[in-house]
Amino acid sequence: MMNRVNAFNQNFAAKITSGVATMWCAYAFAAIALISLPAAIKTGDLITIVAWVAQTFLQLVLLSIIMVGQNVASASVEQKITETHTASLGEFELAKEARALNQQEIKDLKAIAAEIHQVLKEIEKKNFK
Fold first, then answer.
1. φ, ψ (nearest 5 deg) of residue 78
2. Does the structure show a pLDDT above 80 at 128?
3. Cα separations (Å) of 115 from 108, 112, 124?
4. Which of 55, 56, 70, 82 has its CB surrounded by the most CB atoms within 10 Å?
5. How far apart are CA 58 and CA 16, in angstroms?
6. Cβ neighbours around 30 below 10 Å, total
7. Running DSSP on this structure, what letter comes out for residue 1?
């Protein structure tokens, strides 16, 4: 039962977060905040106006804008990670091919060395006869 509640809470939070992390939500928050602006200005109190800007407008609007910015930055990082991973896999495949070629070259060099060794033995036999 607790797993269902946790799953629901996580899904609900993810949906709310994805909804708040949009510029449309920032525009809606700005419109909501602007509704109380005339009342703040009517007071003529500088502290009330500054409080409205800081506590009402900036907090509401910047919340969504910051989340949008984080999503953009996260997508950029994810793309770089994907590109790096793809390039690394390509390099790994090249390294495997190079290793296979090197192993074949070593095998060929050993065969050539064995042939040279055999020729030298034959020359040595002829010279000592």
1. -60, -40
2. no
3. 11, 5, 14
4. 56
5. 20
6. 14
7. -
